[in-house]
Amino acid sequence: MSHPTDASQAGRFPAFAPAMPQGVRFVLLAALVAVLTILAGCAGSRGGPIPYDVKLAAPDAPSVLTLEEDYKISPLDTLKVSVFQVPDLSGDFEVDLTGHIALPLVGNVKAVDLTTAQLDAKLTQQLGARYLQNPDVSVGVKSSSSRTVTVDGSVRQPGAIQVNGETTLMRVIAQARGTDENANPRRVAVFRRVQGQQMAAAFDLTSIRRGRSEDPRVYAGDIVVVDGSSVKAAQREILQALPILSIFRPF
Fold it and tell me: Among 41, 94, 222, 234, which is least packed, fewest CB within 10 Å?
């Protein structure tokens, strides 16, 4: 005579495998423990040519680039300015998009399109006219934007990107780890020096991503700025003045 089956129990345990002999289970368990022990030993082992527990020396100090004597300073170059025996006036200064550096006492000084020797003479004259007697000034280029594409604004990893061969706007944005949560991808500006003039154009990154607009080529020396709440005030003013998908034009 058959007995009714509990529906809930049948739903939970629809079938049972035959019981495994205790001896077989013991052998399988021992094998599993042995494998896990070997894996743990491999994962925790040391090896390779790099020595452990060695105290590393301090990193090399950043050096000033060796450039041609007639190299002209570009926006977003980093300059090293040294005033002998006046450490408060010495340091690293970035050239902004308008071509100026901001120095203590002197204020904003136009540096773009000058050689380091010309800027040296300019700073010597300005400091000597008001603040110092016979100032000894030296200017060098610490990093040059003309060898790289500089990506700034609302991207996850702003900075200089080395250019090897042809590249495009989408690629350099990707190398900067993409736009951040505060970005306005519909307004991305590219700044470029053409025939001695600073040119600019704005592009709609969203339209490019969807294949509706061409992905423009980007060259070494270009500066790419993604609009957004994190951009600097000077950059924001320039971005707002540029029409989307404009041709390159002076500003």
Answer: 41
pLDDT, one tens digit per residue, over 125-162 is 999 998 899 999 999 998 877 678 999 999 999 998 87
| pLDDT bucket at 70, cuts 50 / 70 / 90 | confident
Q: pTM for the full model?
A: 0.50
Residue tagged 């094998």 (tokens): 31
Question: 60-92: string of b/e by CB count within 10 Å (b at 16+)?
Answer: eeeebeebeeebbbbbbbbbbbbbeebeebbee
Q: Are 93 and 102 in contact (CB under 8 A)?
A: yes
167 vs 164, more confident: 167
Q: Which residues contact 188 (CB under 8 A, 6 or more apart)?
A: 169, 173, 202, 203, 204, 205, 224, 225, 226, 227
